[in-house]
Amino acid sequence: MKKSFICSLICHNGIVGGVLYLDKNSVTYKTNKLTVDRAHRNLVLPLNEIENFTWKWVVFPIATMQMMSGEQYKFIIFNKGRFSKYYTEIKKL
Hints:
Strand order of the largest sheet: 4-3-2-1-7-6-5
Oligomer: single chain
Number of strands: 7
Radius of gyration: 12 Å
Helix content: 10-25%
């Protein structure tokens, strides 16, 4: 089951539009914007390495994924309810 969600990555260069793909192994952010660092164009976050996942509301819903490595990624996800539902289902597998 692979689901896609319109989103924006919040990074030091600002907000970059793209798509989040959620499957049984990872959350993957993809964008085709050439102005974005190569490391963030196809960002794969393995589910087993996500230590904490939280939501915050600042005009738009912002998801924060804290990785076991200490890195933190923030995304504006435009369908919070749908993403939360599938994320919870996949984490149970």
